[in-house]
Amino acid sequence: MDAPPPQQQQGPKKRGRKPKPKEVNQHQQQSSAGKMKEGKRTQQPSIDEKYTQWKSLVPVLYDWLANHNLVWPSLSCRWGPQLEKATYKNRQRLYLSEQTDGSVPNTLVIANCEVVKRRVAAAEHISQFNEEARSPFVKKYKTIIHPGEINRIRELPQNSKIVATHTDSPDVLIWDVEAQPNRHAVLGATHSRPDLVLTGHQDNAEFALAMCPTEPYVLSGGKDRSVVLWSIQDHITTTVTDPSKSPGAGGSIIKQNKPGEGNDKAAESPTVGPRGIFCGHEDTVEDVAFCPSSAQEFCSVGDDSCLILWDARVGTGPAFKVEKAHNADLHCVDWNPHDSNLILTGSADHTVRLFDRRNLTSNGVGSPIHKFEGHNAAVLCVQWSPDKASVFGSSAEDGLLNIWDYDKVGKERAARNPSPPPGLFFQHAGHRDKVVDFHWNSSDPWTVVSVSDDCDTTGGGGTLQIWRMSDLIYRPEEEVLAELENFKSHVISCASKP
User: Fold this and answer.
1) pLDDT, tens only, 366-414
2) pLDDT of 3-59, one tens digit each?
3) Nearest-5° angle of CA 24, CA 25, CA 31?
4) Are residues 382 and 400 in contact, defined by beta-carbon separation less than 8 angstroms?
5) C-alpha closest to that of 467 among 415, 413, 431, 421
6) β-sheet with 159-166: strand ranges across
7) Which of 401, 378, 439, 456 minimizes the C-alpha distance to 12?
């Protein structure tokens, strides 16, 4: 992948690049590290210094944390279905991409992750990890050789064994990850065959991708400035929407192969054309999101600084267009699953903005309820928490993943100096480069997976982290104080015993 163009150039900015493996660049990292530290000593604390400070606080801030080194960077990470519940931990699928330099194929990785339950991990253990090692909690289960590098992965909510991927092409690829054969990613290997290909874009569609929470619909946006809607209903067997079926019972999104027609058969994947193509953006569409309560309503954001709401029931033009939703390109959008009036946007202007669709504009331009200012670089991903209606996360090129609660805006105590930005109540600083994607775990409350592309800091590779903040941070204050008081009384009573 080419490096991103300079800020002043027009056109879409690529949020990934052709990477280098960590091993190849270790000597580059070592030779430049001394110069970097020397140059930054009189300026702001270096990334390494900030990271060291963060790591020292891990036992206090986190209930659990797993750090997993990636040889190749991943631009997307998503939770799959929960597989098993046990006394102290649960086992769950995890979807990752491997973005290579071409020496080996690009891959879609299906991993098994052991998620430690709340208040099980010992505080002194969770910070004792080696940044260059793979985590024992993350084990590769299956590899799918992907035709091109993966920019985005999204799972079908009705059956998270079905995923969609975006690559540098106009098509959206659909995969039944359980039915796909495990492949060995070596140079020259033929790519795996998608179970379904969604066509309709006239130019590359790279990042904007969403799956509908209520119907098997897929939404995409691309360089052709359009938003495209598909239904894959005709290609889904009844097992897809019936999670009670056993894991091996199928759930394929295409008609079952006849004997002898395995996935390695040199045949074209079946295709599906769009339900609708929606036009209204004047530049690349960077992200899309469905309304949580309607498969016919959705929104999109783009490099034209616009937020557009669409309603497929009334036509292919914008239902409402918000000009100048931000002061720069918009990179991401998410629709609140608890309150369908609230929409989040993130931008290259470093801010996250909260819009109410009942009152989107003022004097012809975007009028957000609030601007959240806690990043100092472009915001790449925003997502509402499934656990509390007012909580959301935002990740950015500054290496931070901020957790916000808009209910706290205006209610903060002005005791600390400097005080944190309004609404910000937790900052995950465990990544040392841009946090390109993260995903809340709907099966395990307050658990997050996040991934960073470490090309700038370590010369290659990436870092995957799975973490859960201490519940003392997000629980109601009076409840936490009561627990601490009980603990204090317990400690005093123990200390007073002979």
Assistant:
1) 999 999 999 999 999 999 999 999 999 999 999 999 999 999 998 766 5
2) 443 333 333 344 543 444 544 444 444 433 343 334 433 455 677 788 889 999 999
3) 140
4) no
5) 431
6) 152-156, 159-166, 172-176, 196-198, 271-272
7) 378
What is the distance of C-alpha 236 from the center of its chain?
A: 26
Q: How many CA atoms lie within 13 A of 195 on its CB side?
A: 26
User: Which amino acid is located at 228 in the chain?
Assistant: V
Whether 406 contacts 390, CB under 8 Å: yes
pLDDT value of residue 498:
62
pLDDT of res. 5: 39
Which residues, listed in sequence order, are joined to residue 177 by a DSSP beta bridge? none
119: number of Cβ within 10 Å: 9
Q: Rounded to two decimals, what is the model's pTM? A: 0.86
Query: CB count, 10 Å around CB of 44?
Result: 9
Q: Which long-range contacts (CB under 8 A, 24 or more apart) does 2-11 make?
A: 11/283, 11/284, 11/303
Q: Which pLDDT score is estimated for 395?
A: 98
Using DSSP's 3-state secondary structure scheme, residue 35 falls into helix
CB-CB contact of 228 with 221 (8 Å): yes
- Going by C-alpha positions, the residue among 171, 157, 175 that lies closest to residue 253 is 175
b or e along 166-183 (b: 16 or more beta carbons within 10 Å of the residue's beta carbon)? bbebbbbbbbbbbbbeeb
For 480, counting Cβ atoms within 10 Å of its Cβ (0-12 exposed, 13-18 middle, 19+ buried), the class is: middle
Residue matched to tokens 């799956």: 211
State the DSSP H helix or E strand holding residue 31, giving kind and residue range, or none if neither: helix 26-40
Dihedral angle, C-alpha 277, 283, 289, 290, nearest 10 °: -30
**Using CA atoms in the order 70, 71, 72, 77, what is the torsion angle rounded to 10 degrees?**
-10
Partners of 498 in the beta sheet? Answer: none
At 70 the pLDDT is 94
Instruction: Give the integer Cα–Cα distance in Å for 119 and 131.
Output: 24
d(CA 178, CA 413) in angstroms, rounded, equals: 50
Pairing of strands 138-145, 152-156: unpaired
Q: Which residue has the tokens 């150039």?
A: 9
Considering the chain, what is the average pLDDT of its residues?
85
Residue spans of the chain under pLDDT 50: 1-14, 16-20, 22-42, 237-251, 254-266
Answer yes or no: are the C-beta atoms of 190 and 107 closer than 8 Å: no
- 143: exposed, middle or buried (C-beta count within 10 Å: 0-12, 13-18, 19+)? buried
The total number of residues written for the chain in this structure = 498
Question: Which residues are bridge partners to 378 per DSSP?
Answer: none
**At 124, is the secondary structure helix, strand, or coil?**
helix
pLDDT of residue 455: 76
Distance of CA 123 to the CA centre of its chain: 27
Q: What are phi and psi of 455, to 5 degrees?
A: -60, -40
Q: Distance of alpha carbon 297 from its chain centroid, rounded?
A: 22
* Token digits of residue 294: 């309607």
